[in-house]
Amino acid sequence: MSNILEEYEELLAQIDEDIERWKSKEAKWRRRLNPDSPKFAKQVAKINAAMKERERCEEDRKDTQKDYEELKEELRKEREEDEAKNIRMDDRKKTLKAVLDQMDDDIKAVERAEQIWRDKLKKDMSAADKEVAESQLKVAVEMRENLQKQRDEVQKQYDAA
């Protein structure tokens, strides 16, 4: 499950980069703002669009951070439950079985994230919002595919044990 946490951390970092990019664009356009220019309205519109995109990214960041924290809490509870049960897996097959089960949980968690982004794509949104949602969906799909490949390798080891 730590893989999924790392993926969420990468996703949060990517969203932070998006936020900084929009802040930078907003600041650049504010510096260029000239009330005497015939393009003043267009300049203001660009600034407003950048502000909205930044705010949207900040909202996505809050939502993703919340999901991340919930997942972290869920993992902590699972670890506590496992420790309380004092699970001891001494032989290789039991250990590999536990790894497979955990990987299945990881894949399910990523599939849930995938579904969240698919649902967001079904809603009406701006092109920039759609682009961000598509990129987040792509990250989730790649995550799931990578986890599935890793799981297949562990399954081979389990079958051989």
Kindly report the average pLDDT value. Answer: 87
Shape: elongated
Radius of gyration: 22 Å
Task: Give start-end ranges of low-pLDDT stretches.
Answer: none
User: What class would the helix/strand composition place it in?
Assistant: mainly alpha
- What is the count of DSSP helices, taking H or I runs of 4+ residues? 4
Topology, number of strands: 0
Report the major sheet: none
N- to C-terminal distance: 23 Å
Q: H/E element string?
A: HHHH
Percentage of residues assigned to helices: over 70%
Description:
The chain is mainly alpha-helical and 161 residues long. It is 88% helix and 0% strand. It has helices at residues 2-32, 40-85, 92-122, 127-160. Helix 1 (2-32) packs antiparallel against helix 2 (40-85), helix 1 (2-32) runs antiparallel to helix 4 and helix 3 runs antiparallel to helix 4.
TL;DR of this structure?
The two termini are 23 Å apart. This protein has 4 helices and no strands.
Which helices and strands, and how do they pair?
Elements: H1 2-32, H2 40-85, H3 92-122, H4 127-160
Helix pairs in contact: 1-2, 1-4, 3-4
Features of this protein?
single chain, 161 residues, mainly alpha, 4 helices, 88% helix, 0% strand
